[in-house]
Design goal:
alpha+beta, three-stranded antiparallel beta sheet, 12 strands
Length: 316
């Protein structure tokens, strides 16, 4: 039986079929829909697919310092021992580092880039803050994959995010190609919420960030959505940018190539979508996974003022 007090019941004991989302996809009010860098074609594509892809959004020269800083972070023994660093379950290498915008001024400024922040504000129709930031690494010949999932399902269940009003910005710090485990997405999957089965164990995040077993959609539902929308894997050079809606189903394969794959993720949440108590977990996850204290609206920080105000056009 569905709890009507919870708009998106999940982690259930019995199977429940997918059902339509209850919020709009582009949240800006109709009269302010175009207040931002995205044109109507881009907004319509985001509504249709649940993501936008910008190949070569930043130049390689601008991205290289971020990758070098990550290499320096890996030498910080205290950081590497902290819970913010997740190790690959197979190789023991770094899989993810969370709280990137709080570890580095350079990464913090990137979250406030006017072109990215302008698009995010336009899509979410409000001021925004960083719900979570992370780097996902896949080293050559060893990076494990990520199973199919909706980020919103996890954030709703374990963080208490009430509504689908968040967007992820994924910046490629290395080239993403068909061999090194690029992100795969199911276009159109964001329109339906797929409830998952299985109750959430205490401190589930400690295991789920290494290998997700709870919060994985039913295979029949995944097959249905993939048959309808297909699967796309945007690929491109370092500096490319992917914006995807919080409920878009996505996954990635392991890295079978000699080339590393490092992607940076900033999750922007609307200030009008503040976290509540978890809807399907015993207790909230740590602050570096779901921000509750540092939720001040972001202000733009432009390292490249000559780019401010320029429009952006995603690739198909």
């Amino acid at each position: 039986m569905i709890d009507r007090n919870d708009a998106y019941p999940t982690r259930l004991r019995e199977y429940h079929e997918p059902f339509p989302r209850r919020e709009p996809i582009v949240h800006a009010r109709k009269e302010r829909r175009w207040d931002g860098p995205l044109d109507e074609v881009s907004l319509s594509r985001y509504e249709r697919d649940g993501f936008l892809w910008f190949e070569g959004f930043f130049s390689k020269d601008r991205i290289t310092p971020f990758f070098k800083e990550l290499q320096e972070m890996a030498k910080d023994e205290a950081l590497m021992r902290s819970e913010q660093v997740i190790q690959d379950p197979n190789s023991g290498a770094i899989r993810s580092v969370f709280g990137m915008h709080e570890l580095s001024d350079r990464f913090d400024r990137l979250t406030r880039d006017p072109r990215i922040l302008g698009m995010v504000r336009q899509l979410l129709g409000s001021e925004v803050y960083i719900h979570q930031s992370r780097i996902n690494d896949k080293f050559g010949f060893q990076g494990s994959g990520f199973d199919w999932h909706s980020d919103f399902e996890t954030w709703h269940s374990e963080d208490g995010m009430p509504k689908m009003r968040a967007v992820s910005a994924s910046l490629m710090l290395t080239d993403n190609n068909e061999f090194n485990g690029p992100l795969m997405l199911i276009p159109g999957s964001h329109r339906l919420f797929v409830p998952c089965m299985g109750e959430t164990p205490e401190m589930n995040w400690r295991e789920s960030l290494k290998a997700q077993r709870i919060g994985v959609p039913d295979k029949d539902a995944l097959a249905m959505l993939a048959e309808n929308g297909g699967i796309q894997a945007p690929k491109g050079p370092a500096g490319s940018l992917l914006l995807f809606e919080c409920n878009t189903l996505h996954a990635s394969n392991e890295n079978m190539s000699p080339w590393p794959r490092s992607n940076l993720f900033f999750v922007y949440n609307s200030v009008d979508n503040a976290l509540e108590e978890p809807f399907a977990a015993p207790s909230p996850r740590p602050e570096f996974l779901g921000a509750r204290r540092n939720v001040r609206p972001l202000e733009m920080h432009d390292d490249y003022p000559e780019l401010a105000g320029q429009g952006v056009s995603p690739l198909r």
